[in-house]
Amino acid sequence: MHTLCDHAPGSNCQFPHVPYVPPDRGSRAVDPVIVVGAGPVGLSLALALTRLGVPVVVLDETEGQEDTRPARTAVLRPDTAAFVGRLGCAATLESAGTRWSAWRTVRRRRLLERVAFTPPGAPDASGAAGPATAASPIHLPQHALTRALRAALAGEQLAEVATGSRLAGIEQDEQGVTAHTRGPDGTSWRGSYLVGCDGPRSTVRKLLDIRFPGRTAVERYAVAALRTELPWPGEALLHRSPARHGGGPVAEVSARPLAGGVWRLDWLLPPGRELVTPDALVARIRDSLAGWTADSAAESGDDGAGGQGRLVPPYELLDTGVHTVHHRLARTWRQGRAFLAGDAAHLLGALGTQGLDEGLRDAENLAWKLGLAWHHGASETLLDSYQAERRGAVAARLRAADSALPLLRDGGAVRWRTVLPGAARGRSTLLTDGHLGRGPLGAAPTYARTPLAPAAGLPGETAVDTVPGGPVADVVVTASDGSVVRLRERLGQGLLVVLVAPGTGVWDRRHWQSAGLMPRLTNAVGALPMRAEILVTEAYPGATAHTVLVVRPDGHLVTALSGVRPGGLSACADAVRGGAYGRETGKTTEARAAGETGGAGKGDGPGGAPRDGAGSTAEGATGGTSGDAAGASPVDPPGSAVLHSESD
Ligand SMILES: Cc1cc2nc3c(=O)[nH]c(=O)nc-3n(C[C@H](O)[C@H](O)[C@H](O)COP(=O)(O)OP(=O)(O)OC[C@H]3O[C@@H](n4cnc5c(N)ncnc54)[C@H](O)[C@@H]3O)c2cc1C
């Protein structure tokens, strides 16, 4: 039996003492978190946990090598790319990934839409990051991502990766969980929690007897990775009804650039299970390449082949495969001390939805919650919130895809024309939103009904452009050491308390801490029951001067407060911890919030009256009264599963 703990008496201790010592460690765990599966989701979860000072053991049945598969790629949105970057893989994202400069939608030979992507973090007029709807994603081979995560984890003292270890059994008790493995080193492992990141055929899910209902083979794509030159370097293409294809009828083909002149091409296959022969795939490749070259030449008035008909540009075929998209959602994502994440919990992928992106969001969401539970002791509300938030978000995504598909495939076009005005536009939106990262199919999720919301009617709550539970804008912020960074770079460790203070860009950094509202804010943040960092920003979309934003470790807004309000801040921290603080101190969120009076102090430094006198009206405004103290945030009602189709 492996008992991996930091300083339990007589343990076979493998980990150094954890440096972060929270004040209320009486009930904290000592055994590591067991992560089953060293795919991208398991590795990123393990890394995120070690960054929080939580020891992890990663069990994987393979020998720890990642096959090179250029056709198995991943599209990371700005939030998940930032998460992976913070885990130490930013260099890999830059070297192995590419950012698309635009997305083109073409029907036959007609360009329907060209959406230019904003480079990540590019400021708009307000100084906020570029609009999320058009922020460019990163596209990279999955093996490059997995290798980078594995290398980063190898440098972590708090992590042990046990390869050749196939999970075969799980036992849970009050104190922890025991995992039994098979393989050359088959043994038992003792952990505080266990997370099944073991892919679509998840052993953890099966051992926990959790159902995985949904639909099989919702869509199938023939996939190829090839090196060639296409007429729109750096731009991704969705081509509907391309003119002619030797390999069989093609309703849709996409071409998405990768680094090094490589492209991933996906041809939507007709429903059914027929095999795609190598000859048929080569015919598709040649037809698509020749068609695009000819179309581009025709646009420029040249037939592209010197009058010799259609020409296939030179290409080097690197990899092929068939990507079958299933839609499935595990009924339960938490059972006691065991959780599911990534493909073990959900399968999706139709219409540009990205399964791996969602898996990384699972990892980011669960890491800080397990970190809090490990250091401070578990709150049931906190641990349950993982399922409420993440399962709810993926369910909504699947629901959106499930309702769009019948309209788009199998004669759905006819239905569009007969039923709906503006059908062409709606159809194009449904086909591209997932790829573009917008709307219900593609935008980063908002946890509007999270159980971790503070009670309604918190005094001083104020509206900004981000709704509570939504992902915050990646604004430029100044940290207490004077460094100027993007907000997303500071996520992952604790709460972020962001003061909106216009005009501070010109202030001498040496006087930050003592100026204006800062001493009061520093005191309030120092008294919070969890780790928190103060940041200052010149502007935030929709925020007036002296607004204080409270941001969760995964970048979702808890709420915005007008001015410095110690009671409001501690109510937010309490809610984010699942109410643990209130229970420990005998105070409730509402009781502390109700004691709140107007919070903003006056001054001439950061957060005080700005030099130009602008934006000072919010100061001292109490705004709102103690409202509905019941305020319990609803979660997905039991049995509200999205998938209404066949079960597994
Ligand atoms: C051809 C192809 C193209 C794809 N394209 C895209 C795309 O464009 N975008 C996208 O988002 N996704 C895409 N996917 C899907 C994507 O690869 C998955 O969503 C992703 O791999 C999920 O990561 P994961 O870490 O959850 O699981 P996995 O990557 O499946 O990792 C699971 C790990 O668990 C281990 N394991 C399994 N069982 C056990 C056990 N009993 N004990 C110990 N270890 C175990 C496995 O060895 C593996 O290392 C594609 C997939 C394919 C095949």
Describe the 3D structure.
The chain is 28% helix and 22% strand. The chain is α+β, with helices and mostly antiparallel strands and 648 residues long. It folds into 3 domains: 2-68 and 142-212 and 330-380, FAD/NAD(P)-binding domain (3-Layer(bba) Sandwich), CATH 3.50.50.60; 214-325, D-Amino Acid Oxidase, Chain A, domain 2 (2-Layer Sandwich), CATH 3.30.9; 447-633, Glutaredoxin (3-Layer(aba) Sandwich). The strands form 5 sheets. It has an 8-stranded mixed sheet, sandwiched between helices. A 6-stranded mixed sheet has the order 9-3-2-13-20-19. Strands 23-22-25-24-26-27 form a 6-stranded mixed sheet. The chain is globular, with a radius of gyration of 26 Å. Pfam families: FAD_binding_3 (PF01494). InterPro entries: FAD-bd (IPR002938), FAD/NAD-bd_sf (IPR036188), RIFMO-like (IPR050641).
**Strand pairing plus helix content: what structural class?**
alpha+beta
Hetero ligands: flavin-adenine dinucleotide
Per DSSP, the total helix count is 14
As for the CATH topology of the largest domain, it is FAD/NAD(P)-binding domain
Distance between the termini: 35 Å
Q: Would you report the number of β strands?
A: 27
Largest sheet: 8 strands, mixed
CATH architecture of the largest domain: 3-Layer(bba) Sandwich
Helix content: 25-40%
Q: What is the alpha-carbon Rg in Å?
A: 26 Å
- What is the CATH H-level superfamily of the largest domain? FAD/NAD(P)-binding domain
The first-level CATH class name of the largest domain: Alpha Beta
As for the number of domains, it is 3
Strand order of the largest sheet: 7-6-15-16-17-14-18-21
Shape: globular
Tell me the strand percentage band.
15-25%
* Unreliable residue runs: 2-25, 124-133, 581-648
Biased composition (Gly residues): 596-610
Domain FAD-binding: 32-398
Region (Disordered): 581-648
Keywords: FAD, Flavoprotein, Monooxygenase, Oxidoreductase
